[in-house]
Amino acid sequence: MGKGDKKTRRGKIIMGSYGKKRPRKHPKAKVEDKKEEAV
C-alpha cells in the first residue's frame, strides 16, 4: 500500500490516473442569471 499501489488514492495521484477512489472534478457550467427583458 502506498505510492505504488494503483488501488489507493495516493497511488492514483502519483500515477496520474482516475477511478472510483479518485473521481474527476467536473467544472461547473456557467449559469447565466440574466433574465430576458420584455420589449
TrEMBL record:
InterPro entries named in the record: Ribosomal_bTHX, Ribosomal_bTHX/bTHXc/bTHXm
Pfam families (alphabetical): Thx
Cellular component terms (Gene Ontology): ribosome
Keyword Ribosomal protein: yes
Chain intervals with Basic residues compositional bias: 1-12, 19-28
Biased composition (Basic and acidic residues): 29-39
Keywords: Ribonucleoprotein, Ribosomal protein
This protein's record includes keyword Kinase: no
Region named Disordered: 1-39
Positions in coiled-coil regions: none
NCBIfam families xrefs: ribo_THX
Similarity section: Belongs to the bacterial ribosomal protein bTHX family.
Protein name: 30S ribosomal protein THX
